[in-house]
From TrEMBL:
PANTHER family hit by this protein: 4-DIPHOSPHOCYTIDYL-2-C-METHYL-D-ERYTHRITOL KINASE, CHLOROPLASTIC
Domain GHMP kinase N-terminal: 74-149
List of residues binding ATP: 102-112
Signal peptide annotation: none
Class of this enzyme: transferase
Reaction equations catalysed: 4-CDP-2-C-methyl-D-erythritol + ATP = 4-CDP-2-C-methyl-D-erythritol 2-phosphate + ADP + H(+)
UniProt protein name: 4-diphosphocytidyl-2-C-methyl-D-erythritol kinase
Keywords: ATP-binding, Isoprene biosynthesis, Kinase, Nucleotide-binding, Transferase
Family label: Belongs to the GHMP kinase family. IspE subfamily.
One Pfam family named in its UniProt record: GHMP_kinases_N
Active site: 17, 144
Gene Ontology biological-process entries: isopentenyl diphosphate biosynthetic process, methylerythritol 4-phosphate pathway; terpenoid biosynthetic process
Species per Swiss-Prot/TrEMBL record: Pelagibius litoralis
Length: 292
């Protein structure tokens, strides 16, 4: 923990977002799509460190640092600039981003980074993370930033700004797999078939087996388009589905990261080990859900 001008600014984790379901229910005039999605957060994520500085500055480190620019369009810097405009004064910090999550991967890494910056700067300035102006800024930064700011199990709708907390939810044992092929969110939305799902406002059931039935009835409407754009997606899903104890294998968001839900953590760990051995080029992580 560091002391920034007398205020402690702790490291922030940018937890990976997982869309357990994703229904596309409509399209707005501005081209954005209305969604209904059960969103959870993994224990695993990027880490952001903050230090005192005279200028706003970003350094990127970690396994997925290569290929991600630290220029002004990075969501970390856009979030810090947006927060400074809100606060009416420059908030100069040197941010180190440890990029543990693959980029353009359907698990909201950039959105989670932006949300982690907003959370950090809230603790620096005393602004409440529930302040409506902060929620407006989050949505301007990206449709997934509000949910990443909440960082808890919710049913998300609108384009990402309507969040309904899910209070009772089972602990899940998951494996996340990314095959190393980036998929653009805009391109996947563009490639999808034009039909819409019916808007579904139901909250998920708390019991594990009933939840799996509920998830089975609500697929990811972007999966078909992602499979066409990136033929490795079906291979990832087949590989996950073939591992012992796998109860559901599905893509998250606009892909290409896929997840599988297991009976227990031992099965998830064994599956991750086997997949790493079979596909050394894939990013494979066994994880639970973020508590809280
Ligand atoms: C699809 C989802 C599901 O959680 O996740 P990812 O696959 O990105 O992780 C999100 O809605 C992505 O949110 P985010 O990545 O923040 O999207 P933005 O930067 O705001 O938008 C990128 C582009 O995606 C399309 N887009 C995004 C969100 C939405 N509700 N409708 C859309 O049509 C638009 O073409 C937009 O120009
Ligand atoms: N800090 C960041 N981390 C990841 N991607 C970022 C970041 N800042 C900007 N981006 C850009 O945002 C886009 C979406 O990345 P990301 O949030 O990882 O994926 P997704 O939207 O599929 O979940 C990428 O094209 C990337 O160049």
């Amino acid at each position: 923990m560091l002391d920034l001008k007398g205020t402690a600014l702790a490291d922030q984790t940018a937890w990976a977002k997982i869309n357990l379901t994703l229904q596309v229910t409509g399209r707005r005039d501005d081209g954005y799509h209305a969604l209904s999605s059960l969103v959870v957060f993994a224990e695993h994520g990027d880490v952001l460190r903050f230090q005192e500085s005279d200028v706003l500055n970003l350094t990127i480190d970690g396994p997925f640092a290569a290929g991600l620019s630290a220029a002004a369009d990075n969501l970390v810097l856009r979030a810090a600039e947006g927060f400074s405009a809100l606060a009416g004064r420059p908030l100069n910090v040197a941010v180190t981003l440890i990029k543990n999550l693959p980029v353009a991967a359907g698990i909201g890494g950039g959105s989670a980074d932006a949300a982690a910056v907003l959370r950090g700067l809230c603790s620096l300035t005393g602004l409440s993370p529930d302040d409506p102006s902060l929620l407006d800024l989050a949505l301007q930064l990206g449709a997934d930033v509000p949910v990443c700011l909440a960082a808890r199990t919710v049913v998300m709708s609108g384009i990402g700004e309507v969040l309904r907390p899910v209070v009772a939810f089972p602990a899940l044992a998951l494996v996340l797999v990314n095959p190393g092929v980036p998929l653009s969110t805009a391109a996947v939305f563009k490639a999808r078939q034009p039909a819409f799902s019916r808007a579904d406002e139901q909250l998920p059931p708390p019991d594990f087996d009933t939840l799996l039935d509920w998830l089975g009835e609500r697929p990811n409407d972007l999966e078909e388009a992602a499979r066409r754009l990136s033929p490795v997606v079906p291979r990832v899903l087949d590989s996950l589905a073939a591992t012992p104890g796998c109860r559901l294998a599905r893509m998250s968001g606009s892909g290409a990261t896929c997840f599988a839900i297991y009976e227990n953590h031992a099965d998830a760990e064994s599956a991750a080990l086997a997949l790493r051995g079979a596909e050394p080029g894939w990013w494979v992580t066994a994880t639970g859900l973020r508590a809280g």
